[in-house]
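step=predict obj=ACATN protein n=178
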Amino acid sequence: LTLQVGFSAADAVTGLKLVEEGVPKEHLALLAVPMVPLQIILPLVISKYTAGPQPLNTFYKAMPYRLLLGLEFAFLVWWAPKVKHEGGFPIYYYAVVVLSYALHQITLYSMYVAIMAFNAKVSDPLIGGTYMTLLNTVSNLGGNWPSTVALWLVDPLTVKECAGAQGHTCATAAAAEV
């Protein structure tokens, strides 16, 4: 139930913050197109490593890289206003974003396939479908509640600077509106 806590902010908020920094939604949506072949091939490749007696080893190996990618996503959001110009964003910025998302997909699918392989391994064959569904439901719940909390905390934790209002912190919604 808690395995996604370390990744939830990066997974749920990065796209929204990139849009907030000026990256067009249409461009972010187009960046998902090169990920489709990767999303098809990755489970096939990763399943070879999770088929053994210890399927969670792949999960454990991917976790630190996925945590580091959260820092890289924070860097991408920080870097966005620095490379933006009148015509939009340079091609190299989009290349770095695509590469980051591709690495993220590799770690995400490594962890996901490993969890599914573990669930299949521990499921009782007599009631395998029911038990595996329960395990997958708990796993999905563990992936969704941290993202909801992260999205809820974005506004209170975002540092805001007031332009032209000296002495005001803009920490509350009312102060920011003023």
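step=describe
The first helix runs from residue 8 to 20.
step=end
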